[in-house]
Design brief:
The structure is a single chain. The longest helix has 12 residues, at about 15-25. The strands form 2 sheets. The chain has a 4-stranded mixed beta sheet with strand order 1-4-3-2, covered by helices on one side. The protein has a 4-stranded mixed beta sheet with strand order 5-8-7-6, covered by helices on one side. It has helices at about 15-25, 80-90, and strands at about 5-10, 30, 40, 50-55, 70-75, 90, 105, 115. It folds into 2 domains: about 1-60, Roll (2,3-Dihydroxybiphenyl 1,2-Dioxygenase, domain 1); about 60-123, 2,3-Dihydroxybiphenyl 1,2-Dioxygenase, domain 1. The mean pLDDT is about 95. Helix content is about 20%, strand content about 30%. The radius of gyration is 15 Å and the shape is globular. Strand 7 (about 105) and strand 8 form a beta hairpin. The chain has about 120 residues and is of the alpha/beta class.
Length: about 120
């Protein structure tokens, strides 16, 4: 028996800001809770293994570098996707990359790092 990634949880200070960013970035639907949280899930008929995103209200700002982050892949042009994400509120960040990597490092509006890969991972 094995397990699979079912959901990614992100602690957030401003739920509404982060819901707006991540739902637009991923094209996910939103269900907001009364407890300061929100669940985001793929629109339409997602595959059984498609992960959801849980935005968990923390009441505090992010501190330090992420120990775990999302790697996203674009359906088409990765650099066009990077520009779209920046227009939505992401920003480019330097975490020590050399410029020769096959990805672009960004941070969401609250500073959580994530990557946009140049191509989907292979085995």
């Amino acid at each position: 028996m094995v397990v699979r990634v079912a959901q990614c949880t992100i602690d957030v200070e401003d739920r509404d800001l982060m819901v707006a960013f991540w739902s637009a970035a991923l094209g996910y639907q939103v269900e907001q809770g009364d407890d300061g949280s929100a669940k985001l899930w793929p629109a339409g008929q997602p595959s059984e293994g498609a992960p959801t995103i849980w935005l968990q209200g923390s009441g505090t700002a992010k501190q330090g570098k992420n120990r775990l982050h999302l790697d996203l892949v674009a359906d088409t042009d990765p650099q066009a996707e990077v520009r779209r994400l920046v227009d939505l509120g992401a920003r480019r960040v330097d975490v020590g990359q050399t410029g020769a990597e096959g990805f672009t490092v960004l941070a969401d509006p609250e500073g959580n790092e994530f990557c946009v890969l140049d191509a989907a991972p292979t085995r």
